[in-house]
Write a structure and sequence with these properties.
With about 280 residues, this protein is an alpha+beta fold. Helices cover about 20% and strands about 25% of the residues. Strands 8, 9, 10, 11, 12, 13, 14 and 15 form an eight-stranded mixed β-sheet that branches. Strands 1, 2, 3, 4, 5, 6 and 7 form a seven-stranded antiparallel β-sheet that branches.
Length: about 280
């Protein structure tokens, strides 16, 4: 049974509750993180918690007393019965009950320890399809719980669609839960942080790419570049590195997963130890 830490104790998730007055429910005021557990060890936890603290600050949530507690809470929980050895840790900080004109002085927090819906092997072999989303992601550096406007373009339609891709004004920024990369003429092109969430897996993959001689260009790819790209891929905590073969009705490259994504995925797996704790 999945495990939760809330109100100072660990308990089965079925016993953990939030009041309906919490601003997470009333106004969608909450931030979260999702860190991967590999064989009982946490991947890049410090990077996740640093980003978590920044998300809370940007959201106006007074989390200074909460953030220092999280490393011990998370590491203890990972070693307990109920936490899978391969899964996800997801800490949340909510707005609590008080909304002082966009400042939330008395937040609540909880941590979920549970399984993970890994990328199906069939999708990894086939490559992912993304659905265009013509809006800009609001406040991209704040990892909030509000994914509604990224989910709406999916519309409960084709089950082979992986997620939506933000494409405001002809630029390509990021996918719903992943960073997006385009490959053309030996270059890896991806939107800069500031326009997109500072992805933990993104940073790891870019480090490995540069170490291994790839040329990285940090700018927003243009929509028209999709038609002439050699390949594309996304990176994220759950998907790691996953090829993208179609955006809407447009096929990318050969329509099959490409060699750059495959090579970077191998590098990610073989270098994982560097970021495990």
């Amino acid at each position: 049974m999945p495990l939760c830490y809330i109100n100072g104790k660990y308990a089965p998730i079925s016993e953990c509750q939030l009041p309906v007055t919490d601003m997470a429910i009333q106004r969608g005021a909450a931030v979260f993180e999702a860190a991967r557990i590999y064989d009982g060890r946490l991947f890049a936890l410090d990077m996740h918690l640093e980003r978590f603290a920044e998300s809370a600050r940007l959201a106006g949530i007074a989390a200074d007393k909460i953030i220092p507690l999280l490393p011990d809470i998370i590491k203890t929980g990972v070693g307990m019965d109920g936490c899978p050895s391969d899964g996800l840790v997801r800490p949340y900080i909510t707005g609590g009950d008080i909304n002082d004109k966009g400042f939330f002085p008395e937040p609540r927090f909880f941590v979920l320890f549970g399984g993970i819906n890994k990328t199906p092997e069939e999708e990894r072999r086939r490559g992912a399809t993304l659905v265009p989303n013509r809006m800009e992601r609001p406040f991209p550096l704040c990892k909030s719980v509000n994914y509604l406007f990224a989910l709406i373009p999916l519309g409960g339609g084709d089950k082979e669609n992986h997620e939506s891709l933000y494409m405001p004004g002809g630029e390509i920024t990021e996918a719903m839960t992943n960073n997006f990369f385009l490959c053309k003429d030996g270059r890896i092109i991806t939107a800069p942080t500031g326009r997109v969430l500072d992805g933990v897996t993104r940073n790891v993959v870019l480090t490995l790419a540069r170490e291994n001689g790839f040329t990285v260009e940090e700018r927003c790819p243009r929509e028209e570049e999709l038609a002439v790209a050699d390949e594309a891929f996304i990176t994220g905590t759950v998907n790691e590195v996953l090829s993208v073969v179609r955006v809407g009705g447009l096929t990318i490259g050969s329509g099959r997963p490409g060699p750059v994504a495959a090579h970077l995925y191998r590098l990610f797996l073989s270098n994982m130890e560097r970021w495990l704790s």
